[in-house]
Task: structure prediction
Amino acid sequence: MKKNSYISLPVIKRLPRYYRFLGILKKNGTEKISSNELSRQMGLTASQIRQDLNCFGGFGQQGYGYNIEQLYAEIGNILGVNNKIPTILIGAGNLGKAIATHMEFSERGFDLIGVFDRNEALAGQMIKGLPIRHISGLYNFCKDNSPAVAVLCIPEESAKEIVEQLVKLNIKGIWNFTHYNISAEYPFLSVENVHLSDSLMTLSYQLNN
Amino acid sequence: MKKNSYISLPVIKRLPRYYRFLGILKKNGTEKISSNELSRQMGLTASQIRQDLNCFGGFGQQGYGYNIEQLYAEIGNILGVNNKIPTILIGAGNLGKAIATHMEFSERGFDLIGVFDRNEALAGQMIKGLPIRHISGLYNFCKDNSPAVAVLCIPEESAKEIVEQLVKLNIKGIWNFTHYNISAEYPFLSVENVHLSDSLMTLSYQLNN
Result:
């Protein structure tokens, strides 16, 4: 994917959104879409969309529209959705269970191979075909299976210790649902934070103003 | 809060993040912080922080730092965290349960007053002190209690119908965990979307490049 190096950061940040909208269109059986129609659905300007999509080949024809299947596949390749990055989930409470159950990891480039919790009472229960393992088995599991990514659905107070352990076990990326500021401590890790309370406060601001 | 009208959109979007970092500092008993130290922790430049915080009074003294408690309270006011917006949760599966259990609604300006699900087997179970109600009771509940915000933790295929119903019941804002494009249909609603798969694909891109 040599083309990637020419895609600017703001465009990259919009890629998952394009991928999501194109995925819905594809599922509905739509084959082509104009930049005007896509702009209406996505809430971006049509010229913004034309500019963005030109960055990686376009797949659009003047007056005819974009080929949805090709564009979807190309953006998927850039995002790496065809990878199978071995991934573990730490924390199998309500949030962890929801994430394991609802997220289509395999369609986003990840392969969920292990689930861990510190609660011994959960050990052996199954989530998405995987047994919940006690956290004490993390070291051996990682040595044997070399996961590269961890999803953190644990209480904030455990986060520091767990991340320290994960880094030693060669984890390269973290999908972080805690508020622990991982990037400040480990700038070399790939970290994507989900700050649900930020999102809730943004809604509060909207309603307040 | 007359000052608000002078705050630009990019600053507003950073407010929940400032609020989160200041909240951690406050909890740790820190009273003052310099823009340099705050910039290190937040991964913004110090001049960006000084510019942002000057927008609403500053509370900083040259060479002394920002008063954390005052700044935290002021940003909280702007975000509306002291409101008690009556809020309902639709969908009490794993995700809904996790959201109801972990989110501190009352510290973010919301008052969770009702939980609904279409699964009759869940009816009567308690989440955070609230009974799960069957969705058929939504109309009467809303007539009696006038919630203004709904949190949607339901399968995508139910979203269109539920949102239509909520709009008729005078809901003004939606915290949307589905992929249903509410804003395209109802531009007058305040909507905050949580697109977890976008976040996961952003991590995939980071690891891939």
